[in-house]
Amino acid sequence: MNAAAGPGADRSDDDLVAAARGGDGRALELLLRRHHDRIVAVCRQLCRDRSDAEDAAQEAMIAIVRRLDRFDGRSRFSTWAYRVATNSCLDELRRRRRRPVPIDGDHAPEPPAAGPGPAELAVRAGDRAELAAALDRLPEDFRTPLVLRDVADLDYATIGEILDLPPGTVRSRIARGRARLAEALAQVAPADGNPDGGRVVGTTQDPTAPAADPAGDGGPTEPSPPTSTTTP
Question: What whole-number distance in Å separates Cα of residue 189 and Cα of residue 184?
């Protein structure tokens, strides 16, 4: 589902929202197509299960359509849409925790396709399963902002709006999440067959992000030791 080209592709989100509210079905379709792929990628990374991700993405799209009249325009439409999608994913995860755990392997979570964001965590060929497993083990407080940053390619302020967190706290959680990912991937990466000792690229801390903020309040933090990664 791609609205990058074709009639109406040059119309702004605000223009499409206004038209859709006025009953323009084509405008609504263009709006949903424009954001569909990124929302699905976010749901896949947050839910870590293809079936749950599809359910969450579908619920998010339905909620966006039903609540479009409530969008007040104080934030960008994309910020509001990702907030709806994130909440749908968190609701799906809560429902998952209440389900009985299957005793066989027939319903094991299927690793989703990697998100298309330009800042996606890059790994060596063959290491995507390890990345999925390491990301899945991250606490939700770290994984959610990390996915919104590296899959949805959102800035810190936008992620803060979606999660109702100060930008400093968002930066801190992303930095700490990346550090944990790097540590987990370094433990499973083989030392042979890779000239750089099997280290994984793409998990370095964002150069604009400050050190981890233990208090979680976005205030000044003590510098933390850098995570060493090298590019194969």
Answer: 9
The tokens for 158 are 């936008």
What are the residues whose beta carbons fall under 8 Å from the beta carbon of 32, sequence distance 6 or more?
1, 61, 64, 65
Q: Which tens digit of pLDDT belongs to each residue from 119-178?
A: 344 333 345 667 777 788 888 899 999 988 888 888 999 899 889 999 999 999 999 999
- The single-letter code of the amino acid at 64 is I
The Cα 34–Cα 30 span in angstroms is: 6
**Residues making up the chain, counted from first to last:** 232
Tens digits of residue pLDDT in 16-74: 999 999 999 999 999 999 999 989 988 988 887 888 889 999 999 999 999 999 998 88
Residue 8 CA to residue 15 CA, distance in Å, equals 10
Tell me the two tokens of residue 178: 């990346």
CA distance 174 to 121: 12
For position 128, what pLDDT does the model report?
62
> How far is residue 51's CA from residue 110's CA, in Å, rounded to a whole number?
8
Q: What does the block give as tokens for 136?
A: 């899945």
Q: CA triplet 46, 52, 54: central angle to 5 degrees?
A: 95
| Cα 37–chain centre separation | 12
